Structures are given as structure tokens and as C-alpha cells.
Amino acid sequence: MVTAALVFAEAAYEFEHQDLHWGNILLSRNECATVQFALEGKKIYMKTFELAISIIDFTFSRINIGNNSLVDDMLLPCSRSNYIPPPTSNINVIVYNLQTSISNCYQLFLGY
Q1: Which portions of this protein are annotated as coiled-coil regions (predicted)?
Q2: Could you give the CA distance from residue 49 to residue 31 in angstroms, rounded to a whole number?
Q3: Residue 87 burial by CB count (10 A; 0-12/13-18/19+): exposed, middle or buried?
Q4: pLDDT above 90: percentage of residues in the chain
């Protein structure tokens, strides 16, 4: 279901989480047997196995809503009062630097 949620979010909103790991996925019990998604006008039903899944920590994420890209511009660290520079070996920093070197714009959608 996590993969499906990401597929639908990417298709609908050009969403990219960019820091997804098991620590950013929460599970809870749910009595619903199925969940409904819509992709390209088609309704899709998936079994939930009575689990509700929540994705958290959107620090490195980006999403398009209409003509607006919502993203934390990490090139402007001074705008954050509690900013602590991450180590250069941090995988998020490596990916961020790679993406900005390719497009020079972190707001650009580079989906799969």
C-alpha cells in the first residue's frame, strides 16, 4: 500500500518524498477491509489487511498543487533559525546536491 500511495501521489501531484524509509512509515489497526484510489480516471480498490498506513517526515519532499511547487528550499538555510548543516556524507544531502546540479532547481519534478 505504501508503494501504491506513492504512485498515486506522484501521478496526481508530482509528489516526491525523497527520504522514505521504515522510520517514516507508521502502521495502525483499521477495520476497513479495502481502500479506494483513483488513477487516470480509474477506480482501484486495494486490500488493507485492516492496516492504516501513514507516511511522515516531509522535510525533503516536494509536491505540486496547481501551479505552485511546495518545497523546503534547502539552498536557503539561513531562513531557518534552528538550521544545523548536515554532514556532507548524508545521503539526503548527496541526492539534493545531485538534483540541483542536474536541474539547478529543486522545485523541478524529476519523477521516475
Answers
A1: none
A2: 9
A3: exposed
A4: 25
Q: Identity (one letter) of the amino acid at 77?
A: P
Tell me the pLDDT tens digit for each residue of 15-69: 988 888 999 999 999 999 999 988 888 999 999 999 999 999 888 888 888 888 8
Could you give the dihedral angle defined by the CA atoms of residues 50, 18, 92 and 27, in that order, rounded to the nearest 10 degrees?
-10
Best CA proximity match to 14, nearest among 51, 84, 65: 65
Catalytic residue status for 19: yes
- Beta strands, E only, 9-112: 25-29, 34-39, 42-47, 51-55, 62-65, 68-71
Catalytic residue (one of 19, 57, 72, 73): 19
Tally helices (H) and strands (E) across the chain. Answer: 2, 6
pTM score, two decimals?
Answer: 0.64
